[in-house]
Write a structure and sequence with these properties.
CATH topology of the largest domain: Outer membrane efflux proteins (OEP)
Number of strands: 6
Radius of gyration: 37 Å
């Protein structure tokens, strides 16, 4: 079972490789479960688009647009994803299939009751059944057939397995598979949280870039106007005005690009959580830096080994495989069953007599042409495969936590440096403006200072986004992502 969702979870490793400097790749935090898959950013890359089409965690069951704007927090987005995300819907259906398989295994152990009625007309051949009498003088012997005759028969039949080790162990195996499928669904919830959290954070980062681009545009417009006034007053050369105009137009283009990207990121988020394409909504949270406290990588790893649903699913899947192996070996044992029927039979409804039969059956396999041996070999191979997958998954859980922790530490340091650089860049811009206004320098220095401020702002946004993304990935790596995410993001 756990292999099935590896496609899903190999899957969800939300492939939001946004291509931002300093950002991390959530693909490393893939789910090692047996069913559904992993998000990738909408992009012009054909291979990425193909991945997106194949990944149910990037889709949803869209709801109708309300027409009114919706205020959407991260927690509300996660709750919508847990209701409408297609990957979780698929996981629920897969769990229902496993539950049906358990009920079929149970039915084989319960009494089977049937009712049957028959109305027949027959002509039996006595020669066919070898019925004959010794020669008698003057007697020609029996006729070739009995002649036509009719009868009616109605009965209720019951069959019950009294002892079958194979049926018992197969039922236990299916019951354990059902437990594994329940863990699969829980793990799919963690995958949805990872997908929604990543998409929401990306939209927040794009929104912050829009604000930064607008601030840059306001500064560029102010500089353009100031330069135009100085050129008119013949206190600055015309080239300063040209440079200021280029800076303003570049800032206008940056705003347009940032707004376009924000709208696309919001559409990606809407697709994941089930919003209609034309549903307007506003992100109420902001991109913020919240340092991780009260946790170590050792405690996080220990928590993950206890909480990861995919690991619990793999353990249950291994137990199910061992039970199936036991069931295949039990084919060599005798089976005991009873059957009985009761009813009435006769020439017609007015002439019916009580009829019944009871029988006990014992079946002992003597020679099966190697079928039982091959079944056991196949089941043994499955046990070994699942054992290896389980051991690998335990290592992967520790790996996922460690990688997320390292990214969080690196991003934490990056955020602090980016914040200092942003402060220094703002001070440098202020001084450049003062120097330009006092005629100490030309507008080129101011333009360069503005570009440095813009670059510092983008680096800060990328650093905070990378840190928050590492936090979401850590929540996924620890298991119980919807609860862990609230804890790690300060209760939000």
């Amino acid at each position: 079972m756990t292999n099935g969702r590896l496609l899903a979870a190999g899957f969800l490793a939300v492939g939001f490789a946004w291509g931002q400097a300093g950002s991390i790749d959530p693909l490393r935090y893939s789910v090692a479960t047996p069913r559904p898959v992993n998000p990738a950013e909408g992009t012009t890359n054909p291979s990425a688009q193909a991945t997106q089409r194949q990944n149910p965690y990037l889709g949803s069951v869209p709801q109708k647009s309300t027409g009114a704007n919706i205020d959407l927090s991260l927690n509300e987005a996660v709750q919508r994803g847990l209701r409408y995300n297609l990957g979780l819907v698929d996981a629920g259906h897969a769990s229902a299939d496993v539950r049906a398989a358990r009920l079929r295994a149970l039915s084989a152990m319960l009494p089977q009751v049937t009712a049957r009625g028959r109305q027949a007309y027959e002509d039996l051949s006595l020669k066919e059944i070898g019925l004959k009498f010794p020669p008698i003088p003057g007697f020609r012997g029996l006729p070739a057939t009995t002649g036509g005759f009719g009868f009616e028969d109605a009965r209720v039949a019951v069959e019950q397995s009294v002892y079958s080790a194979r049926l018992r162990d197969e039922y236990k195996a299916q019951k354990t598979e059902e437990q594994a499928s329940t863990f699969d669904v829980k793990d799919s919830r963690d995958v949805v949280v990872l997908a929604v959290g990543t998409a929401y954070l990306q939209a927040l980062a794009s929104s912050a870039r829009v604000d930064a681009a607008k601030a840059r545009l306001a500064s560029a417009r102010e500089l353009d106007q100031q330069t135009a006034d100085r050129v008119k007053a013949e206190t600055s050369p015309e080239i300063d005005s040209l440079r200021a105009q280029v800076e303003r137009q570049t800032a206008e283009q940056a705003v347009a690009n940032a707004m376009n990207r924000l709208e696309k990121d919001k559409l990606t988020l809407g697709r994941i959580i089930g919003l209609a394409v034309d549903q307007p909504f506003t992100l109420t949270d902001t991109l913020a830096y919240r340092p991780l406290t009260g946790m170590t990588t050792e405690s996080a790893t220990s928590n993950a080994l206890q909480s990861r649903a995919d690991l619990a699913s793999a353990a249950a899947g291994l137990r199910a495989a061992e039970l199936k192996l036991k069931a295949e070996k039990a084919q060599r044992l005798p089976t005991v069953s009873v059957s009985a029927d009761y009813g009435a039979g006769g020439a017609n409804l007015g002439n019916m007599n009580q009829v019944y039969s009871i029988q006990g059956n014992v079946s002992v396999p003597i020679y099966t042409g190697g079928r039982i041996h091959s079944d056991i070999e196949q089941a043994q191979t499955e046990v070994e495969r699942r054992q290896a997958a389980y051991e690998d998954l335990k290592g992967r859980v520790a790996y996922d936590v460690r990688i997320a922790w390292l990214d969080a530490e690196a991003s934490d340091s990056s955020v602090k440096v980016a914040e200092q650089n942003r402060t220094l860049a703002d001070r440098a811009l202020t001084q450049s403006r003062d120097r330009y206004e006092n005629g100490v320098t030309n507008v080129l220095e101011v333009v360069q200072a503005q570009e440095t401020v813009a670059l510092a702002a983008d680096n800060y946004i990328d650093s905070v986004y990378s840190f928050d993304l590492a936090t979401v990935s850590l929540a996924r790596a620890m298991g119980g992502a919807d609860t862990k995410l609230k804890e790690l993001l300060g209760g939000k």
